[in-house]
Amino acid sequence: MIDLALLRQPRFAAAVLAMFGYAACAQVMMTFLPLYLQNAFGLPAVRAGLDMLPFAIAMVIGPISAPP
């Protein structure tokens, strides 16, 4: 639950919009980039998945290693 009055603060609203934009782009990229790698470059599915692995690892390790 979040107090909607926080959205009146410009810095908070900008941070929320920035994270929403990042998350939307990251999810689209994680969905369509493997398909692009397979169709445009002819990579097998396993190779396309392995090429996406560094990004997936960074998305898991980044939040864990960030300071609280």
Can you walk through the features of this model?
With 68 residues, the chain is an all-alpha fold. The protein has helices at 10-41, 45-65. Helix 1 (10-41) packs antiparallel against helix 2 (45-65). It is elongated, with a radius of gyration of 17 Å. The two termini are 20 Å apart. The model has no long low-confidence stretch (mean pLDDT 92).
Percent of sequence in beta strands = under 5%
Helix-strand string: HH
Rg from Cα? 17 Å
Largest sheet: none
Give helix % range.
Answer: over 70%
* Average pLDDT for all residues: 92
Q: Flag low-confidence runs.
A: none
Number of helices: 2
Shape: elongated
Oligomer: single chain
Question: Which structural class fits the helix and strand makeup?
Answer: mainly alpha
How far do the termini sit from each other? 20 Å
Number of strands: 0
